[in-house]
Amino acid sequence: MLSYRHSYHAGNHADVLKHLVLVQLLRYMAQKDKPFWVIDTHAGAGMYALDSEHATKLSEHEGGISRLWARDDLPPAVADYVAEVRNLNTDGNLRSYPGSPWLAQRALRDQDRLRLFELHSTDHRTLASYFGHYGKQAIVYADDGFATLKALLPPPSKRALVLIDPSYELREDYSCVAATLKEALERFATGTYAVWHPFLPKPEARFLPQKLRALKCENWLHVTLSVRGPSSDGFGMHGSGMFIINPPWTLATTLKETMPWLTAALAEDKDASFTLDLQSN
Fold this sequence. Notes:
Layout: H1 13-29, E1 37-40, E2 47-49, H2 53-58, H3 65-69, H4 76-86, E3 96-98, H5 100-107, E4 113-117, H6 121-131, E5 138-141, H7 145-148, E6 160-164, H8 172-187, E7 192-199, H9 203-213, E8 220-226, E9 239-245, H10 251-266, E10 273-279
Parallel strand pairs: 1-4, 1-6, 4-5, 6-7
Antiparallel strand pairs: 2-3, 7-9, 8-9, 8-10
Helix pairs in contact: 1-4, 1-5, 8-9
């Protein structure tokens, strides 16, 4: 039984990192006239009300998007991301937060395609209600994105951005990420793959980046953000990372310019930090 609901965590520091990077990837994909696909293996509900019962229970957005909302000194990449959130809050009040599907749909042109997977029955219904009217451009599947991704690769356009962002609620999610990526690269080696992963006090979480770096890919970028040091009781997520295979050549420079500012803006203690590593052929 799947119990994870992203509505409890929408707009937190991990979403800020994930969606800032996602917006940059989408911008780059749309620079060429040739069509591209966006495939989201764990799409969630699509968008979230920050004044809902779920969101207000933890109010995690207060340590994420809310810290950026009223600032007038945003670096370009952060400003680009925040502008997308503003497009969902046209009256200037931060009440709603866009999930990855919403951000992806905003970036698509008529020739591009969006394929969304979500197994949680409630979130799937919500997702389908948002995207069901787009016809063949956006299709929502009530399927396991890990298992079904291979059927979509390679896409007809031979250009795709694949977002892999499971809840990591299940221990096997960590091994599934690495196995799914390995198989995907065998079928479609030139695709861009973006994997979000949490910083949690579990061996599986600590070793996942190492497993991703061991995959047969020549070009990758790994950015992480910790907003605080690990808690003394060993509980809680203090940071997260994005591992991108076949990243745009511009992304490393953008993140080098952005991450020091973002780390300072979201820091919760003196141990806040970021890392940025890459490999290119």
